[in-house]
Task: structure prediction
Amino acid sequence: MFAIFQYPFIQNAFIAGSIVAIVAAVLGYFLIVRGLSFAGHALSSIGFAGAAGAVLLGVSPIYGLMVFTVTASIAISVLGREVRERDVATGVIMTFALGLGILFLSLYHGYAEQAYSILFGTIVGVSRDDVVFTFVLGLILLVVIAIIGRPLLFSSFDAELAETRGVPVRALGSIFLILIALTISITTQVVGILLVFALLIGPSATAIRLVHQPLQAIFLAIILGLAYTWLGILLGGNSPWPVSFFITALSFGVYLPVRLLSKGIDSKRSAKGFEKLSITDSALASQKDRND
Result:
C-alpha cells in the first residue's frame, strides 16, 4: 500500500496536500467563527469563472482563480459592510461570476478534461513547480494570519467591543476575505472548486464541536485536515477512485457523528474559550484609561 510513495507525483501530491490542509484548517476556523461560510462558498464558485477564463486564454487556471476570487473578496467587502448587505452582495456577485464561467466554457473548444480538473481537483497532477508555489503562498498566508490573528479573533467574537478598543474591524475583515480567496485558489488544486469546503470547513467545523479553546480548536483542525488528506492520497493511490472523493468522504464521515453526538455547541459559543482574552484586553484598556 505504501509503495506508491516512491512515485514523484505521489510525493508532490503529499507535500502540496499537507500545505493546503494546514492553511485551510487555520483559515477555516476563522471563517466559521466569523459566520462567513456562505461568502467562502461564493468565492469558490466565483473562482470557477476565473479558472475557466484562464483556460480559455491558455494560462494556468490558478492565476484566473486568484484574480477573480481576490477581486470578488474586495467587492464583497466594499458592497457588504453590514451582514445583510454582505449576503445580498455576495449572492449577486456569485451569480454573475457563474454566468461568466458558463460563457467561458461555451467559448472553450479544447479538451473537457481541463474544465473537469477545475471542478474536482488534480492533486496527483501537481508538479514540483506547483508544490513550490503552494508552499510559498501558504507560508505567506500563515504569516499574515499569525500577525493579525489576535485582533481578528477579538473582532470575530465581539466586533463592537473590538472597534471601541481601536481595532480596525472593517480593514481586518477585508484582509481576511482576501486571505480566504488565496486559500481557495491553492485548495482547488487538491479537491477542486466543487469540493473545496471539504478542507476549508470540514476539519474546523468538527474541531469547534469538540474543543472550545481557539488555539486548541485550530490545532485539532490541522490534525484532522492532515489526516483526511494523507488518508485520501493513500486510498486514492491504491484504487481507481479519485483522491478528492476520499478526502470529502472522510471529512463528512467524521463530522456527521461528531455533530449528532455533540451537545449542540455552535461556533459562537466557542467564544467562551475567548472569554479570558476579551476580559484581559478590556481590563488592560480600562487600566490605560484610568492612567490617562
Remarks:
- Residues 2-283 form a domain with the ABC transporter involved in vitamin B12 uptake, BtuC fold (CATH 1.10.3470.10).
- The chain is about 80% helix and 0% strand.
